[in-house]
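hey can u check if this looks right to u? its 471 residues, i copy pasted from the old doc so theres a chance i mangled smth
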Amino acid sequence: MSETLLLNEDRYFSSDPVQRKIARDLYEKVKDFSIISPHGHVEPVLFAENKPFPNPTQLLVIPDHYLYRMLYSQGIPMESLGVPRVDDGETSTDSRKIWQIVGDHFYLFRGTPTGMWLKHELHTVFGIKKRLSHETAMEIYDQLAEALAKPENYPRAMFERFNIEVLSTTHSPLELLQDHKNLMKSGWNGRIVPAFRPDNVTDLMVPGWRDNIQKLTECSGIDCTTYKGYLEALRNRRAFFKDMGCTSSDHGVMTPLTVELNLREAEKLYDKALKGDIGSGEAKMFSGHMLMEMAAMSIEDGFTMQIHVGVYRNYNTEIWRKFGLDKGCDIPIAVDMTHDLHPLLDKYGNNPQLNLILFNIDESTYAREMAPLAGHFPALKLGPAWWFNDSREGMLRYRKMITETAGFYNTVGFNDDTRAFPSIPARHDLARRIDARYLAELVAEHVLDPDEAEEIIVDLTRELPKTNYHL
């Protein structure tokens, strides 16, 4: 087997020669566009401190739940991959040994988006010319370690080399955004803005919710012992985030349930939660009500409102207890968009002042519910194929299932939604190639004229994310 790592210029395009030629031409128009990354989870401290990344394992393996999720599925303990534990248990600290394990098992990622992204990162970002394998793992580790020590691979230099125009990072309302403040004072020109993620104070079942409400009181300076004070504190934190450059909020919920409670009902549930006397059904009702409140606040302050649904989080209890949240144990579930979103859309969906972006892992809703909803309500747009569907085939299915009903302009372009900073160019490149592939099919079959496809791919790459996220 050849050890050479190659990235074919026609990767991800159709094997049909007519479509492939059209896709090449469309991709060429946008391949060098600056990256708009309007939603993600990269930590701003990277850029505030601008220190060298510690080593290849710390950068590319330990933070990447896509990667160690697959390895765990093949019986490789997460402790052996250096994933930090929250229960004071031991985990490997031998970075070279961890990297060797990844090299030994990199064949597991054939055909997966993780494999596609990592090949791009190694080849294009770091100049690696050999495939990662058992035999090459240590040679590649040493090449990466040498590259990471160079100033051109420090976080800010990477940001500039990746041609990132704007990067959004996601934060709890309890955060003081000190890293963003430090970036503002630094004189560096890279544009990094926060996004507002209030789940830890709007979901009554979050562990430590009552402690979080006390922290909300402290950081807002507003007494949150009453429901009215709680709402005012949230408005206060939204205003602070807006002053720091924020243009969007994000809400991660299992289902898209929305509920309109009257003031007395909401106060009653809030008071019960403060006393620790809330049931799961009541908590679900309150969370659904708070999506309504967040929509109302978005109309007031102009934030784009994102709702991410369809995930049973931390499904593997043993892993959650050992390693904590967000460790690759989240599983898609079926959801009911039409009924659950009806209260919110009935009240606010006709208001052009609301910009609501909906993300869902349940693909069965794309054509049946999401496209018809977005194809009607002025306030609603569809986010790109997300998480398990953020893949070559997932993106194609998304376009095929929604375009005929919702069109292209009720979508918002691409966002990478990643914690893995070096993967950002790979993810955007894949998205641009898949959009080129889909549009090429429509041109080849005379659904679109070539000039229409050229305009659409520019809008998908640049104009739609900038417009819908107010960037």
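The domain at 17-51+162-468 is CATH 3.20.20.140 (TIM Barrel).
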